[in-house]
Amino acid sequence: MSELVFFCGTMDCGKSTLALQIEHNRSARGLVGMIFTRNDRAGEGKLSSRLGLVTDAVEVEDGADLYAHLVDHLSQGRRADYVIADEAQFLAPEQIDQLARVVDDLDLDVYAFGITTDFRSKLFPGSQRLVELADRVEVLQVEALCWCGARATHNARTVGGVMVVEGAQVVVGDVTGSTDEIGYEVLCRRHHRRRMTAATARAAALAPDVLPVSSG
Ligand SMILES: Nc1ncnc2c1ncn2[C@@H]1O[C@H](COP(=O)(O)OP(=O)(O)O)[C@@H](O)[C@H]1O
Ligand SMILES: Cc1cn([C@H]2C[C@H](O)[C@@H](COP(=O)(O)O)O2)c(=O)[nH]c1=O
């Protein structure tokens, strides 16, 4: 029985790497995948991992019908044995419904990969729909770590290393960007709540201690 599986986690926890591994293992056995992505950092029509691997993919545009895309593809006599959708948090809820229909009506496995929550720790609409519809939700096991060493569960957006909480939900970026630009950092919940990034924690640690006032 085909499945809709949502592989989720924070940024930088290996989702795209796993997507590329699933693709590699299946194509090594002669299977053909339909690979969707949206707003990958490597550019339009690319699925890339920080380990340096990259593959071509179909860039999902606003309003694209993913079910119709598969039906068109198959009716032209072309093959698709399974579907991968990376950066699935950026898909519209209707597009997630279309992926569920691909599973149910076309009997293809769909593997979706994405972050669940944004920089304000609110669900992305696409991820919310995946949680609602997926046969299985798998949290990636290679956890990213907060600067304090705890498991990172949240994504922070930073400007100059300082966490920000205002701005558009979608801003493509990386966890290793220049500190002057918008970047991202993964944090544990405690430090996300306190808005304490690696840079602000370092600055606090370097600040001179307040000297005790002598009474004598
Ligand atoms: N130089 C490196 N050596 C080993 N592993 C690395 C290196 N750079 C990145 N990684 C691994 O790749 C992961 C990020 O993979 P990626 O698939 O790009 O993440 P995601 O798609 O979840 O944002 C990191 O968490 C780390 O485990
Ligand atoms: C938290 C958050 C992230 N994004 C963007 C930043 C990246 O381009 C992607 C996540 O990619 P990854 O492969 O999982 O690292 O999402 C965003 O637009 N808005 C956010 O709140």
TrEMBL record:
- The entry's protein name is Thymidine kinase
**Which keywords are on file for this protein?**
ATP-binding, Cytoplasm, DNA synthesis, Kinase, Nucleotide-binding, Transferase
Q: Where in the cell is it found?
A: Cytoplasm
Q: What is the taxonomic lineage of the source species? A: Bacteria, Bacillati, Actinomycetota, Actinomycetes, Kitasatosporales
This protein's species is Streptomyces tunisiensis
Positions of transmembrane segments: none
Which amino acid positions bind ATP, per UniProt? G9, T10, M11, D12, C13, G14, K15, S16, D86, E87, A88, Q89
Please give the InterPro entries that the UniProt record associates with this protein: P-loop_NTPase, Thymidine_kinase
Which family does the record claim for this protein? Belongs to the thymidine kinase family.
Which gene name belongs to this protein?
tdk
